[in-house]
């Protein structure tokens, strides 16, 4: 094993930050995670994510909980408007899905021994040969300073609660703070059973798939159907302002939490599109009450410089490349970054090679996610849109 950093600060305590934190902890490095969210356990909004080969490899190498992390493989299928039959996209394609909250709890258990309903008996927070770890919530990083003479990076951060400012110094800083941040009657319906379905409608599309709840549970009847509805809306249009104006007449900048969507906005969205949906999807959408829907603008981003300050600051996950969420590759990308960075630490590849591979993969997936979005909207407009997301028991 080559000599790596003795101390690491990770800015961002989501999945990308936790994966890198677990890796460095396992190799004996002291790790501090600074997370802006003040909650001791981050809320998941019942978000669904895909488990790809890199995530599977990471969990095989570093997960000590033994907790099942995802559903069985799902086929990828396409649905067109009211057609009741779905078409399989690729004969060999399969996707494992899970919930953000479940994977977060598994990673927290491995990082700092956090117990939860998903992992009631976590592994020891620190075993022999492992580094010391801390997970600080409510901490917003405001400044990074690189001391070239001492070869260290200082991170200045502010406590969101009392406003107190503090500074930490480490050999390496990892930026992992992101790009910004069922109905039981359908139980036997093959439209949703173990499938990742892309339903193409008129200038909009809906992605739907099964995920476990955060608890977790993988038994049919206890899982969720996660669906995401994408529509193209001009950024500066009155329509965008109307969508993001809540029941209290307050205009939101990017995201409107569940419970605040105005009934007339949701009812119009459904009324305009429901007649064009296949029966199972229409039933799912009809059973969704507007109080359970949240709305958010979709953003993507691409950074061309993953390594800064002579290799002392490294950008990973959505901090480097944020894809449109219909690709569900954010966690897979973070795992790829972590596994490849491990090879750098072990002397199997150079940091320049890591950066080049990260840039190429990021740009390729960034472009592909845009292409799929254009296909879904039938060529509709520039990229400025919103999506609504909802999960229900299934």
UniProtKB/TrEMBL annotation:
<dbReference type="InterPro" id="IPR053212">
    <property type="entry name" value="DHP_3-monooxygenase"/>
</dbReference>
<dbReference type="Pfam" id="PF22607">
    <property type="entry name" value="FAD_binding-like"/>
</dbReference>
<dbReference type="InterPro" id="IPR054707">
    <property type="entry name" value="DhpH_subs-bd"/>
</dbReference>
<protein>
    <submittedName>
        <fullName>FAD/NAD(P)-binding domain-containing protein</fullName>
    </submittedName>
</protein>
<feature type="domain" description="2,6-dihydroxypyridine 3-monooxygenase substrate binding">
    <location>
        <begin position="190"/>
        <end position="300"/>
    </location>
</feature>
<dbReference type="InterPro" id="IPR036188">
    <property type="entry name" value="FAD/NAD-bd_sf"/>
</dbReference>
């Amino acid at each position: 094993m080559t000599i790596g950093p003795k101390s690491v600060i990770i800015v961002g305590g989501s999945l990308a930050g936790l994966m890198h934190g677990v890796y460095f902890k396992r190799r004996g490095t002291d790790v501090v995670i600074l997370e802006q969210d003040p909650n001791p356990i981050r809320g998941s909004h019942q978000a669904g994510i895909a488990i790809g080969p890199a995530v599977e490899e990471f969990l095989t190498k570093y997960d000590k909980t033994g907790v099942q992390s995802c559903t069985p493989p799902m086929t990828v299928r396409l649905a067109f408007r009211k057609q009741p039959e779905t078409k399989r996209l690729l004969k060999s394609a399969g996707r494992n899905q899970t919930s953000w909250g479940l994977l977060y709890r598994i990673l927290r258990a491995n990082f700092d021994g956090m117990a939860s309903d998903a992992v009631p008996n976590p592994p020891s927070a620190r075993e022999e040969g492992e580094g010391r770890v801390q997970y600080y919530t409510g901490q917003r990083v405001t400044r990074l300073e690189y001391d070239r003479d001492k070869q260290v990076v200082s991170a200045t951060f502010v406590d969101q609660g009392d406003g107190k400012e503090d500074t930490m110094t480490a050999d390496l800083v990892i930026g992992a703070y992101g790009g910004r941040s069922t109905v039981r009657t359908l139980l036997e319906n093959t439209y949703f059973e173990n499938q990742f379905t892309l339903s193409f409608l008129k200038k909009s599309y809906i992605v739907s798939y099964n995920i476990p709840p955060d608890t977790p549970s993988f038994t049919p009847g206890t899982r969720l159907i996660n669906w995401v509805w994408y529509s193209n809306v001009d950024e500066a249009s009155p329509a965008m302002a109307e969508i993001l104006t809540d029941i209290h007449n307050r205009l939101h900048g990017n995201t409107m939490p569940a419970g605040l969507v105005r009934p007339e906005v949701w009812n119009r969205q459904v009324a305009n599109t429901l007649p064009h949906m296949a029966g199972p999807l229409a039933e799912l959408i009809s059973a969704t009450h507007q109080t359970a829907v949240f709305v958010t603008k979709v953003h993507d981003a691409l950074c061309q410089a993953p390594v800064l300050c002579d290799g002392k600051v490294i950008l990973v996950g959505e901090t480097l490349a944020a894809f449109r969420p219909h690709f569900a590759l954010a966690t897979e990308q973070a795992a790829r970054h972590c596994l490849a960075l491990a090879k750098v630490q072990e002397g199997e590849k150079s940091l320049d090679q890591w950066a080049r591979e990260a840039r190429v993969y990021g740009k390729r997936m960034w472009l592909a996610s845009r292409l799929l979005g254009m296909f879904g909207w039938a060529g509709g407009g520039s990229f400025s849109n919103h999506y609504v997301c909802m999960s229900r028991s299934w």
